[in-house]
């Protein structure tokens, strides 16, 4: 079905066969089991998705050549480019062929990654338009599979039944010390339950200490959840999490990614089990908080299973009280005496005496790992006397598992290791530094070939080596055995030899493009210089988004190394200034607290920035010195420093980041941020053209994956610039785009800001209902933001005041505005000396124009209610502090003087004032204000009895304003302007302009020139009509004419005949006085029209 999901062919490790799914449906298994059914299925489709046993995903398509033959091809996108590989005819398309060809894409990926790394290191040769696809760092696929089950299993029906019952709860917690069989039990449970859909799909994650990085942890979770969703659906959440936040231009995407993931999991076709093994390794507090958020909001179709040695730092008490938690502890998981007896009977080649059995049972206390390890050891002897040896393992503290562990360590060394041949002993000791093992890696570490064979031999010998499920041949030692071998390796080989082995492992990882693993191994080798170089390589690839891990690595490096790596100095400064706690501050949390720094931390950051600057100066790299200044801009934002401080640092950064210089991606983001700051300052100074040019360049610089928030902020400011210039349609386009992105990003601040700007535009177009709805939605969002954004609330309240004014309630409107200005958080700078702090508070993207608009409308409303004396007093006070104001505020103040003089009957003074201000507003491209001033100038001419000049000014404004459909611009001026418009109407030439004036007059209210709540231009309510009203159907036809539809299209849209459409069109021509479709369409685009509903 066009546009629907492709069938997915993938290897199922659980079923041990290939399966085909379509969304949540599992297609007939006969397709993959019978060759004839497989070929028949291929003949009936043209494309499908394929995931090989290594997890590589590609699209398979059937293509027909010109001569008519059909062939299959595999496609995969790598680093933004599509790779294509030939598969063959249908007869050749086997599973083996698919696996072989798809595996070639893995090599392509590694080559492409290295190519990207090399390219990024040549920063001066990357053009500003160069885009690099963000590819998340690869996950070790074995993490997403449970370990293979041991060959010897016993039926534990009572526990399996309890696990089945646990599905009635949101969360299951299996908590017990090491070796109690938590992993094996759950793994065994998964193999005994029915296949989907009779039983939920299960996804597995084996956690390790590296998963304390929140981004790595959640990337693993989202990747695992793709089994519950399907790979296509999960990619969106994964791409959100993979967004480039290393340079902090965007809000951390975790909340967005988790919300998107939860929404996807809530779909009826999705759901299943999410199993997190070894959760006790997670110690990062922010991870516990985000996991609690995730579990709290889980849909009913998803169940989480946690396996942990210790009680996790989660709100277990709350979940217990709600009945959402199911728990199993060590006492539940211990082997019973009966289970122990069955296990020993199957595991040992000899029968134990009753006394020996009781001794073992009492010593081990049902400890599964101890029982299994002892059986592996005892199976070497053929007499029951060997068991007596193991009595020493229990010691006197039979419940002290640490004591038992120590005894096992000694036994591994004396009885297991020493019993092996020298080559095996050396292999075990040398490879003990590895957490996971494979043949080529062990070859590199030991310096000998044949490790793959050696690993298989060790596994067959029962030397505590486990095969990891998943692609490739990977193994790991049993945790207790691994610890024992590392202890013995340190004693027999020495630390220097172990570090040398770790260094060889690091080199192998690097060659395999596993840079994160290479860095960890370099740290084990204590080769900090190698660590530094590898971190630089990884950072250059821009696909590593784990700030917790990055900070941990960087803090290992001494200053003597850092001073030669300025990029690492800047990275560490970023991690110190933007800790994980700050990046993961959710809505409602105290971001300001997370942003606080101690004196020691501030001193450390300054030292790092100085080292970075000196390093780049020595290297002759000036551009990155600009990044240091740009970083100071962001740091000052966190410290809530005066806006002037931000501007100073941003201007300094742009000295090193000139507009004409080609820069790589991170520097473009730094520059875009500084351009935004300086652009806002230019706007503050009234330099609209310069501001717009800077912001357009910032928009160009920021167009890259993962920079949505920065782009949204730039677009928001550009929308405000278009409003200043009187370009309402362009402003609406920008703010609609901002609103759409802000909602997707769950950015309530930007969404509220966009809604308020759209409400202002709707008000100008006299859509009072729409303006009210948008303002109320913005107010709800603003009140939800913590800490609450006072300026957003104030802007919404101002919009309500304007609506009251438009509905002929000026007194209520004045009361609302006066209350806002009395609030010290909003109008506090009025009545007190101006300060940088107040300018900083006022000049944010969300508070743009706030005070200017409030003072403007307070003055207008006081004049409308006759309180001229208070207006005069306010203006006198402002005149003493006007140097603090922006150009917009200063211009507004001067306009209010003119309005006051006009209301006082001082027509000549008003005329001179507006005549002076009009060219000033136009010169600064404040066209919106210029239109208002020109209307006031017309009224001043009229007050001075210069009717001809008054009419000329009004006609000029009408000619400009009708292109954007201004209405409130005229209606807000009241009866004086209405009289001018009425006198002008007979002399106006042109149908479009005449209809525009008639529209303004028709919406003018009978009291003081304000419209009642209605926004339909062709409404039959109100004063006597100046044109014959259009019927509702004619209005619909006119709207479609304006959209460029033909008669046949209109007929189809409205479900009427073409002849009926022609009749409506002729009626429209007659009523509106137009001669053709073009003129009618032009009218439809200029004026508000009802929808077709």
From TrEMBL:
Domain HTH luxR-type: 1023-1088
GO BP field: regulation of DNA-templated transcription
Record InterPro entries: P-loop_NTPase, Sig_transdc_resp-reg_C-effctor, TPR-like_helical_dom_sf, TPR_MalT, TPR_rpt, Tscrpt_reg_LuxR_C, WH-like_DNA-bd_sf, WHD_MalT
Tagged with keyword Methyltransferase: no
Keywords, in A-Z order: DNA-binding, Transcription, Transcription regulation
Family annotation (PROSITE patterns): HTH_LUXR_1, HTH_LUXR_2
GO MF entry, a single one: DNA binding
Transmembrane annotation, as ranges: none
Domain of life the protein comes from: Bacteria
Entry annotated with the keyword Acetylation: no
Descriptive protein name: LuxR family transcriptional regulator
Species name: Ktedonospora formicarum
């Amino acid at each position: 079905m066009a546009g629907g999901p492709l069938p997915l062919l993938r290897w199922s490790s659980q079923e041990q066969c290939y399966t085909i799914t379509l969304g949540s449906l599992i297609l007939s298994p006969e397709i993959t089991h019978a060759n004839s059914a497989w070929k028949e299925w291929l003949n009936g489709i043209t494309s499908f998705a394929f995931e090989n046993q290594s997890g590589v995903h590609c699209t398979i398509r059937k293509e027909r050549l010109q001569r008519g033959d059909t062939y299959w091809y595999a496609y995969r996108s790598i680093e933004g480019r599509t790779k294509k590989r030939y598969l063959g005819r249908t007869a050749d398309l086997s599973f083996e062929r698919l696996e072989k060809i798809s595996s070639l894409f893995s090599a392509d990926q590694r080559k492409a990654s290295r190519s990207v790394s090399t390219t990024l290191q040549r920063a001066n040769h990357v053009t500003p338009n160069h885009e690099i696809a963000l590819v998340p760092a690869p996950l070790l696929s074995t993490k997403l599979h449970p370990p293979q089950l041991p060959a010897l299993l016993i039926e534990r029906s009572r526990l399996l039944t309890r696990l089945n019952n646990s599905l009635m709860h949101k969360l299951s917690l299996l908590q017990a010390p090491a070796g109690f069989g938590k992993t094996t039990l759950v793994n065994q449970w998964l193999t005994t339950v029915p296949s989907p859909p009779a039983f939920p799909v299960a996804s597995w994650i084996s956690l390790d200490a590296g998963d304390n990085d929140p981004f790595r942890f959640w990337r693993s979770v989202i990747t695992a959840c793709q089994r519950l969703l399907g790979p296509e659906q999960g990619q969106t959440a994964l791409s959100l999490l993979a967004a480039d936040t290393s340079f902090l231009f965007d809000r951390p995407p975790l909340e967005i990614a988790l919300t998107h993931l939860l929404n996807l999991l809530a779909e009826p076709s999705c759901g299943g089990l999410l199993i997190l093994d070894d959760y006790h390794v997670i110690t990062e507090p922010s991870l516990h908080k985000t996991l609690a958020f995730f579990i709290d909001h889980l849909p009913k179709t998803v169940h989480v299973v946690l396996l942990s040695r210790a009680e996790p730092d989660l709100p277990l008490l709350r979940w217990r009280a709600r009945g959402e938690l199911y728990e199993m502890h060590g006492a539940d998981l211990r082997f019973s005496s009966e289970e122990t007896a069955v296990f020993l009977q199957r595991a040992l080649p000899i029968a134990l005496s009753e006394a020996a059995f009781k001794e073992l049972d009492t010593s081990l206390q049902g400890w599964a790992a101890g029982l299994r390890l002892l059986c592996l050891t005892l199976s070497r002897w053929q007499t029951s006397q060997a068991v007596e040896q193991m009595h020493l393992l229990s010691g006197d503290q039979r419940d002290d598992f640490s004591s038992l562990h120590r005894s096992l360590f000694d036994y591994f060394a004396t009885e297991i290791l020493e019993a092996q041949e020298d080559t095996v002993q050396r292999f075990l000791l040398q490879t003990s530094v590895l957490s996971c093992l494979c043949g080529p890696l062990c070859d590199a570490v030991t310096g000998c070939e044949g490790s793959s064979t050696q690993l298989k031999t060790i596994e067959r010998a029962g030397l505590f080596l486990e095969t990891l499920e998943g692609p490739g041949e990977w193994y790991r030692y049993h945790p207790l055995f691994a610890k024992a071998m590392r202890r013995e390796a340190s004693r027999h080989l020495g630390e220097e030899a172990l570090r040398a082995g770790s260094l060889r492992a690091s080199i192998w990882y690097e060659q395999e493009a596993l840079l994160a693993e290479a860095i960890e191994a370099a740290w084990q080798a204590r080769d900090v210089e190698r660590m530094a170089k590898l971190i630089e390589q990884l950072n250059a690839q821009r696909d590593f988004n784990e700030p917790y891990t990055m900070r941990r690595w960087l803090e290992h490096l001494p200053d003597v190394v850092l001073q030669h790596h300025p990029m690492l100095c800047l990275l560490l400064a970023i991690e110190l200034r933007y800790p994980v706690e700050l990046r993961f501050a959710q809505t409602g949390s105290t971001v300001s607290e997370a942003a606080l720094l101690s004196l020691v931390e501030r001193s450390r950051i300054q030292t790092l920035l100085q080292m970075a600057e000196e390093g780049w100066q020595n290297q002759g790299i000036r551009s990155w010195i600009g990044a240091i200044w740009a970083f100071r801009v962001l740091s000052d934002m966190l410290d809530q420093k005066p806006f002037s401080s931000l501007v100073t640092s941003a201007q300094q950064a742009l000295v090193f980041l000139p507009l004409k210089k080609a820069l790589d991606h991170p520097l473009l983001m730094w520059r875009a941020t500084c351009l935004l700051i300086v652009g806002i300052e230019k706007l503050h100074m009234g330099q609209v053209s310069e501001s717009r040019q800077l912001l357009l360049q910032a928009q160009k610089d920021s167009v890259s994956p993962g920079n949505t928030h920065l782009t949204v902020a730039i677009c928001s400011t550009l929308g405000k610039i278009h409003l200043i210039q009187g370009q309402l349609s362009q402003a609406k386009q920008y703010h609609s785009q901002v609103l759409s992105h802000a909602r997707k990003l769950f950015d309530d601040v930007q969404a509220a800001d966009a809604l308020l700007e759209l409400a202002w535009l709707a008000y100008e177009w006299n859509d009072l209902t729409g303006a009210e709805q948008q303002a109320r939605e913005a107010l709800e969002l603003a009140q939800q933001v913590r800490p609450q954004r006072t300026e957003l609330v104030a802007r919404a309240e101002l919009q309500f005041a304007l609506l009251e004014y438009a509905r002929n309630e000026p007194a209520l409107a004045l009361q609302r505005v006066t209350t806002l200005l009395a609030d010290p958080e909003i109008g506090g700078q009025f009545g007190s000396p101006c300060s940088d702090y107040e300018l900083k508070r006022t000049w944010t993207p969300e508070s743009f124009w706030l005070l200017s608009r409030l003072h403007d409308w307070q003055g207008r409303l006081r004049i409308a209610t006759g309180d001229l004396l208070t207006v005069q007093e306010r203006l006198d006070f402002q005149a003493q502090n006007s140097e603090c104001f922006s150009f917009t505020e200063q211009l507004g103040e001067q306009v209010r003087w003119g309005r006051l003089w006009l209301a006082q009957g001082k027509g000549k003074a008003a005329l001179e004032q507006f005549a002076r201000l009009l060219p000033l507003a136009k010169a600064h491209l404040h066209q919106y204000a210029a239109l208002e001033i020109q209307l006031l100038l017309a009224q001043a001419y009229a007050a001075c009895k210069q009717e001809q000049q008054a009419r000329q000014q009004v006609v000029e404004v009408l000619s400009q304003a009708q292109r954007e459909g201004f209405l409130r611009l005229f209606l807000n001026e009241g009866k004086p302007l209405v009289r001018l418009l009425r006198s002008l109407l007979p002399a106006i030439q042109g149908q479009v302009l005449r209809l525009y004036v008639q529209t303004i007059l028709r919406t003018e209210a009978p009291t003081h020139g304000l419209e009642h709540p209605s926004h339909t231009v062709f409404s039959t309510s109100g004063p006597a009509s100046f044109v014959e009203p259009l019927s509702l159907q004619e209005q619909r036809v006119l709207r479609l004419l304006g959209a460029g539809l033909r008669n046949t299209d209109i007929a189809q849209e409205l479900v009427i005949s073409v002849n009926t459409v022609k009749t409506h069109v002729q009626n429209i021509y007659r009523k509106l006085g137009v001669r053709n479709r073009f003129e009618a369409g032009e009218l439809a685009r200029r004026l508000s029209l009802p929808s077709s509903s």
